[in-house]
Amino acid sequence: MSVDETIQARRSVRRFTDDPVNPKALREMLALAALAPNVANRQVWRFIIVTRPELRRMLGQTVEIRLNEMGNWPEFKEQQMRLRAWREQAVHFAAAPAILFVINLGYRTPLDPMLVEHGMKFYETNALFGHPDIQSIGALLGYFTLLAQERGLGTCWLTAPLVAKHNLQHALELKTGEEIVAMMSIGTPAETPLPRTRRQIDEVITWM
Ligand SMILES: Cc1cc2nc3c(=O)[nH]c(=O)nc-3n(C[C@H](O)[C@H](O)[C@H](O)COP(=O)(O)O)c2cc1C
To answer: Is the minimum distance from the CB of 157 to ligand 1 under 6 angstroms?
Structure first.
């Protein structure tokens, strides 16, 4: 398949068969995806791959429990529909044979010490430069989806479960300062999702 064809064939897949994903294939895909452009080549990522069924179940329950707790907050009293819709997006990962957790190690530019001394906060400097750490991880994950597609594997990029980020980080025994910024479910597709259309490209291009 050409790159164009792979891009056109990829869909977010949310239902998988029980077939395990070969760890060697996952390792190879991550090594290739890490060739993506990334800020100052700092490779600001670390990965956790969860395949053990009982741990996957526990992580899914962690998100469910958090959403149930939020359902009792006064702010959500009239908003149970929103929480239910969120749940739809947030818990299906637990049934995937492999779940990739991406941890952001963070990036500070060489200008940061001076900008911070001048009064900026780190989150402001990071925003000023367009969150280069997150952009780098996005590039890697974009590549990863295509590498998976090439190998007959489906993926779903996920951030909705991060509603329970601190609970997930605790369950995965992350060190202080380490932050999960994205997840991806991976497996053999058990569905063929229809393509989701995109805006006409000319609507979003300004030529100057
Ligand atoms: C940053 C990001 C976060 C996403 N989070 C979720 C998620 O939490 N749950 C989910 O089911 N899909 C999630 N998706 C998948 C998108 O919904 C999907 O890519 C989009 O609807 C377009 O569909 P397609 O990927 O099939 O072309 C996410 C995608 C991205 C890039």
So the answer is: yes
CB–CB of 41/118 below 8 Å?
Answer: no
Give 207 Cα–ligand 1 centroid separation in angstroms. Answer: 28
Query: What domains does the chain contain, in order, with CATH numbers?
Result: 3-203 (3.40.109.10)
Nearest CA, atom 13, ligand 1: 158
Dist CA 119 CA 132 (whole Å): 20
pLDDT, average across residues 151-175: 97
In tens, the pLDDT along 182-194 reads 999 999 999 999 9
The predicted model gives 138-155 an average pLDDT of: 98
Instruction: Tell me, using a 6 A CB cutoff, whether residue 79 lines ligand 1.
Output: no
Contact criterion met (CB below 8 Å) for 151 and 29: yes
**CA-closest candidate to residue 168, choices 103, 106, 123, 107:** 103
Report the run of H or E that residue 181 belongs to, with start and end: strand 179-187
Distance CA 50, CA 208 (A): 47
Cβ proximity of 113 and 63 under 8 Å: no
Q: Please give the Cα distance from 52 to 99 (Å, whole number).
A: 10
Query: Contact 108/118 with Cβ under 8 angstroms?
Result: no
